[in-house]
Amino acid sequence: MSRINRTGMSKRTLEQWLTEYSVSHQNLVNKKIHWLCVPTIFVSLLGMGMSLSVWFTLVLSALVLLFYMQLSTPLFMAMGVFILICLSVMSLLPWGFKVWAGVFIVAWIGQFIGHKIEGKKPSFFEDLQFLLIGPAWVANSLMGGKNS
């Protein structure tokens, strides 16, 4: 179970989060599915959000970046760049909410297929903060991290 401080944020370090997340992401096929689907889910969430409210999505993105900053400055910078890339790509795509929602659903189906192959349930069933750790795990692997 999560150790929570008085701000409501976990006291876990990035390494602890990634180690725990990696437990249910050992199978190579599941890892590859996650490396594709996690960023796809992230961008689709931004796409759906931007379709509904630009300001709300930007504020929520800033709060997500604060979570990452608490864990690691390099992760904060990597995710900040990723969010900027997502927003840039989205500005080039004429997709509305329904298309982004479809992408979101397909990517989640992929995630669950990966976990079926792995034989372990998704980490977020234990702690919803793992929904933010998935993108950190992918970013960590792209930065040459050992927990991926």
Write the element-wise H/E pattern from the N-terminal end onward: HHHHHH
Helix count equals: 6
* Estimated radius of gyration: 15 Å
Number of strands: 0
Low-confidence stretches: none
What percentage of amino acids are in beta strands? under 5%
Q: What percent of the residues sit in helical stretches (DSSP H or I)? A: over 70%
* Intertermini distance: 22 Å
Largest sheet: none
Supply the number of structural domains. Answer: 1
Question: Gist?
Answer:
The protein has six helices and no strands. The chain is mainly alpha-helical and 148 residues long.
3D architecture notes:
This protein is mostly helical and 148 residues long. The protein has one domain (25-142). The protein contains six helices and no strands. It has helices at 14-22, 28-52, 54-71, 73-92, 97-118, 130-142. Helix 1 crosses helix 6 and helix 3 (54-71) packs antiparallel against helix 4 (73-92). The model has no long low-confidence stretch (mean pLDDT 89).
Question: How would you describe this structure in keywords?
Answer:
148 residues, mainly alpha, 6 helices, 72% helix, globular, Mpo1-like, Mpo1-like protein, transmembrane helix, transmembrane
Layout: helices, strands, pairs:
Elements: H1 14-22, H2 28-52, H3 54-71, H4 73-92, H5 97-118, H6 130-142
Helix pairs in contact: 1-6, 2-3, 2-5, 3-4
